[in-house]
Amino acid sequence: MTVTSGAGGPLDGVRVVEMGQLIAGPFCGQLLGDFGAEVIKVEPPGQGDPMRQWGQPGYPLFWEVLGRNKRSVSIDLREPAGQALARRLIATADILVENFRPGTLERWGLSPDVLRKDHPGLIIVRVSGYGQDGPYAGRAGFGGIGEAMGGWRAIVGDPDRPPSRMGVSIGDSLAATFACLGALAALRHRDRTGEGQTIDSSLFESVLQVMESLVPDYVVAGHQRARSGAILPGVAPSNVYPCQDGEYLIAGNQDTVFQRLCQAMGRPELAADPRYATHQARGERQAELDALIAEWTAGLTVDEVEAAMVEAGVPAGRIYRAPDMLADPHFAARKALTELTHPRWGRFVMQSPHPKLSQTPGSVRRVAPQAIGQDNAEVYQALGLPESEIEALAKTGVI
């Protein structure tokens, strides 16, 4: 179902075959589709992608985000006839995205070597827990496992509690984003040489990429980062502070910013106090300084604190939830949310494609496939399969 028209996007003309499920592979497909690629999602007949059932009871809405701008075909990849059909489909693609356990494509006769014999320009994006090689490659790996191995889980949460999770599947999303980056780089290489290649994006290494100086901190300084709750140790003030009607985040840790914060609080003397005047001094008295700021914010509403921070030029912000996003004028001005009329859910609002491109922006052109294999006839007829063959494949359960 087409939702918006507009420009096709910078990837218009690029065909992606997505053979994966859950989050890591499909999110990579979503990103490519948002910017104009034609994405054909391959699902198992009958059951489809498990994400079709995930979510709040009766509301599997994450599927509607992950599946946007895609068409759905069904293929039983465990059957030889299904593997042959998949090869035929992949032969028309620029990019293949998969997030099966390493070795799965090979068992199905769909290894990169086999696929590139007749299609040397094919780009194959492989997303997995531990990567395509190494001693752990064959292990099952979900996003949380990659977050643990990559170092994320060890530093998230309060110091007196077990490691926490982010609340979203950040490991999967990071692996998908790096996979998409790899696919775009490979497209550039193919434009110059005609050669395809394989992108190997592991969950744990994708998380590792955003862990800042965690490893050098230990190797050079012998420091191991630990869970610190809402603060970053030694960086103060930077915390969430209580107001009369909610919570508010203030980041005033730079010297000049701290001076402006003190003025806004009516406590200019704090900026000149040797206990707080420098970054190092504030870090040494972090809890003490947070208590002083919390005492001030507790007597004000969120609106009052925000007005003071905006006037003073202090980086600060509300703790947003969905209703706040829907009501916020900046979200509206930036078109950060896309609203459409969905055939099943009615009014439907979700995040817009990102980042913003000035000449060839992304768009939501099609809602997620509502039925497994709903585009079988259209896609397979375009491959040259006669209607009788499509019907035969359906009768035998291959599609």
Largest sheet: 6 strands, parallel
Arithmetic mean of pLDDT: 95
CATH fold group of the largest domain: Rossmann fold
How many domains would you count in the coordinates? 2
The CATH class name of the largest domain reads: Alpha Beta
Instruction: Give the terminus-to-terminus CA distance.
Output: 21 Å
**What is the H/E string?**
EHEHEHEHHEHHEHHEEHHHHHEHHEEHH
Number of H- or I-type helical stretches: 18
Per DSSP E runs of 2 or more residues, the count of β-strands stands at 11
Low-confidence stretches: none
Strand content: 5-15%
Let me know the CATH homologous superfamily of the largest domain. Answer: Crotonobetainyl-coa:carnitine coa-transferase, domain 1
Order of strands in the sheet with most strands? 3-2-1-4-5-6
Report the principal-axis shape. elongated
Secondary-structure class: alpha/beta
Radius of gyration: 25 Å
Description:
The chain is α/β, with parallel strands linked by helices. It has helices at 24-34, 62-66, 80-90, 104-107, 112-117, 143-149, 170-193, 203-208, 214-221, 255-265, 269-272, 279-284, 286-297, 302-312, 322-327, 329-334, 376-382, 387-395; strands at 15-19, 38-43, 70-74, 95-98, 123-128, 198-202, 238-243, 246-251, 316-318, 337-342, 346-351. The strands form three sheets. The chain has a six-stranded parallel β-sheet with strand order 3-2-1-4-5-6. A hairpin with a 3-residue loop joins strand 10 (337-342) and strand 11 (346-351). The mean pLDDT is 95. This is CoA transferase.
